[in-house]
């Protein structure tokens, strides 16, 4: 292995030249592309110039024409001649037309005012009429009152214990028959009087009879249908 020379000693070998590597540049293809692009632009510019050159030129402004005199108007033929046309219609009288339109406007205004007044009057009358109808509906008529009264009377007259029911305060022969029948039931109406008055003693006797014989269809102390049937089935009025 060769030893490198010391510092200051001459180098006796031939120095080596640097090697240059020349690489081909790809600029030719780029130049050709740019050239083709420029040619295409030139062709488009020329085509545009050709198209603009085909535009129709604007015509020059016409020169001012000289004024010519109109021919004279021929005279109108007489009204009776066949050459004359139909007689011109006279224009309508503007005075009459204006008066008619004014009358129509006035009539329309009067109709509008009348309609407004009628509507206002109806609006005032409707609440009063509604109140009157409500009052009449709430107040029953004479026939309805009579029917209601008759229904109430009929309801009151129908005794829940049956027709011919006797209760405390009644008098008459039916009460006498009740007292006589109760006297035939042992210990129910002991020493009771037969005076025809439905008093407290008779009421207690009827209640006692209902309790002893299990009669529950009538009010306690009231001589109704159930109590009557039970008492008449157990007693008679012929033997004494």
TrEMBL record:
Q: Looking at the keywords, is Transmembrane present?
A: yes
> Where does the sequence pass through the membrane?
106-126
Ranges for domain Peptidoglycan binding-like come to: 171-231
Instruction: Determine the domain of life of the protein's source.
Output: Bacteria
According to the UniProt entry, which residue ranges have a biased composition of type Pro residues? 71-81
Keyword terms, alphabetized: Membrane, Transmembrane, Transmembrane helix
Tell me which Gene3D superfamilies the record gives: PGBD-like superfamily/PGBD
Task: Locate the compositionally biased regions of type Low complexity.
Answer: 139-157
Bias kind Basic and acidic residues: ranges? 1-15, 25-53
UniProt xrefs under InterPro entries: Peptidoglycan-bd-like (IPR002477), PGBD-like_sf (IPR036365), PGBDSf (IPR036366)
Instruction: Region Disordered: list its residue ranges.
Output: 1-98, 139-173
What is this protein called in UniProt? Peptidoglycan binding-like domain-containing protein
| Organism encoding this protein | Streptomyces thermoalcalitolerans
């Amino acid at each position: 292995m060769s030893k490198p020379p010391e510092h200051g000693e001459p180098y006796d070998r031939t120095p080596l030249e640097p090697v240059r590597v020349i690489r081909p540049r790809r600029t030719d293809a780029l130049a050709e592309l740019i050239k083709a692009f420029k040619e295409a632009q030139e062709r488009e510019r020329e085509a545009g110039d050709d198209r603009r050159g085909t535009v129709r030129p604007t015509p020059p402004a016409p020169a001012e024409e000289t004024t010519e005199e109109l021919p004279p108007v021929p005279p109108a033929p007489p009204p009776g001649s066949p050459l004359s046309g139909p007689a011109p219609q006279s224009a309508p009288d503007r005075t009459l037309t204006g008066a008619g339109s004014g009358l129509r406007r006035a009539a329309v205004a009067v109709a509008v005012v009348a309609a407004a007044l009628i509507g206002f009057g109806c609006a005032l009358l409707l609440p009063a009429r509604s109140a009157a109808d409500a009052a009449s509906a709430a107040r029953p008529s004479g026939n309805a009152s009579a029917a209601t009264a008759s229904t109430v009377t009929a309801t009151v007259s129908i005794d829940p214990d049956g027709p011919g029911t006797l209760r405390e305060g009644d008098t008459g022969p039916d009460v006498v028959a009740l007292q006589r029948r109760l006297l035939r039931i042992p210990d129910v109406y002991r020493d009771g009087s037969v005076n025809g008055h439905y008093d407290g003693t008779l009421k207690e006797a009827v209640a006692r009879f209902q309790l002893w014989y299990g009669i529950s269809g009538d009010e306690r102390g009231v001589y109704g249908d159930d109590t009557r049937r039970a008492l008449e089935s157990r007693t008679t009025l012929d033997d004494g």
